[in-house]
Write a structure and sequence with these properties.
mainly beta, 6-stranded antiparallel beta sheet
Length: 336
């Protein structure tokens, strides 16, 4: 493709892409880490914002936010093998997931004759060279497609670009539920590796999902890094769309936020009786009514009365001092 044609495609070609808002991935540069920067013995849990670790009995791994990164980036997500498992059981696997709402994917035209291709690009590094598998899963219709990529040089950042064909079967639900996810496999047992890798869209067959995947768990010296993750419409990978930290944080807070409220004026307070206060906090809209977890209850007994997409109400009882009651800190979770 000529430079002029490439620029025309970026500005608004048949792919529907544009110079901005190309990347369907939030926090692809691994900058936002509201939950923390280190997660040991991960099972199935969100780690760095929007990225979910999943380990089903394959050794043990620690996931961290790392400052090891390619030029143009400051952070990466690192998987580090801490307990080796050189002979995985059939159903074992581990991988990194990114989960997406259906209403954010309607431009893919999935399930129609005009279904569009997508391209995933990312920077990756590992001491463990060989073949790795990236999977895209249509969770609404139990369909998937896979591409292999190769880490060729140990301990060297490599940029990968993988294009996936559009799928004319299975429309995606236009709502705020899970419709699609990406999974970077890091190891898998025979349940997922004994068939033929499904490089075209098909109804799910477990045996076809991770064929050829190396086992990152076969040695505690193994580690794997990723950053600069981009998912965009079309067959052409474009340069990573760097967005401000504030933009990425606000986008992440649709799914999860940690709130520190040590300043009592941060909450709206209503006196119910001499020792009972009702407090509320209003925030930007989350995906669904979140689950609240109180980390520091301040003074008195704190009860969560209810949550909405943009507010939470507490009752504080047993409050006896003349100062206004407060909730020290809490989290709100509305992840997919």
């Amino acid at each position: 493709m000529s430079k002029a044609a490439e620029l025309a495609a970026l500005i608004g070609g048949t792919s529907g892409s544009s110079l901005s808002n190309r990347n369907l991935i939030i926090n692809g540069a691994m900058q936002v880490a509201q939950r923390g920067t280190s997660f040991t013995s991960v099972g199935t849990a969100y780690t760095l914002d929007r990225f979910q670790a999943q380990n089903s009995s394959l050794g043990a791994f620690t996931v961290t936010q790392s400052s090891t990164a390619p030029d143009g980036f400051a952070k990466s997500l690192k998987w580090d093998c801490t307990t080796a498992d050189a002979s995985p059981a059939a159903g074992d696997f581990a991988g990194l997931n990114y989960r997406i709402e259906g209403q954010d994917l309607q431009q893919l035209k999935k399930g129609t004759s005009g279904a569009l291709s997508t391209t995933v690009s990312f920077w990756v590094r590992s001491n463990k060279t060989g073949t790795y598998i990236l999977e895209i899963v249509d969770a609404d219709n139990s369909r998937n497609i896979h591409k292999a990529y190769t880490i060729s040089s140990a301990d060297t950042w490599e940029h990968k670009e993988l294009t996936f064909a559009g799928d004319t079967t299975g429309t995606l639900t236009n709502d705020n539920g899970l419709s699609m996810y990406l999974r970077w496999y890091l190891g898998a047992g025979s349940t997922y590796t004994s068939g033929t890798l499904a490089t075209d869209w098909q109804a799910n067959v477990n045996a076809d999902r991770a064929v050829g995947q190396v086992n990152l768990a076969d040695n505690t010296a193994n580690e794997w890094y990723i950053t600069g993750v981009q998912l965009e419409v079309g067959e052409q990978a474009t340069p990573f769309e760097h967005r401000s930290f504030g933009y990425e944080l606000a986008a992440c807070q649709r799914y999860y936020r940690k709130v520190d409220t040590y300043n009592p004026t941060y909450l709206l307070t209503v006196r119910s009786s001499d020792d009972i206060r009702r407090l509320s906090h209003v925030f930007s809209t989350m995906r669904v009514n979140p689950t609240a977890t109180i980390l520091d209850s301040g003074e008195g007994t704190v009860t969560v009365q209810g949550t909405g997409k943009d507010n939470i109400q507490f009752t504080v009882s047993g409050h006896t001092t003349i100062n206004a009651p407060y909730i020290g800190s809490y989290t709100l979770d509305s992840e997919l």
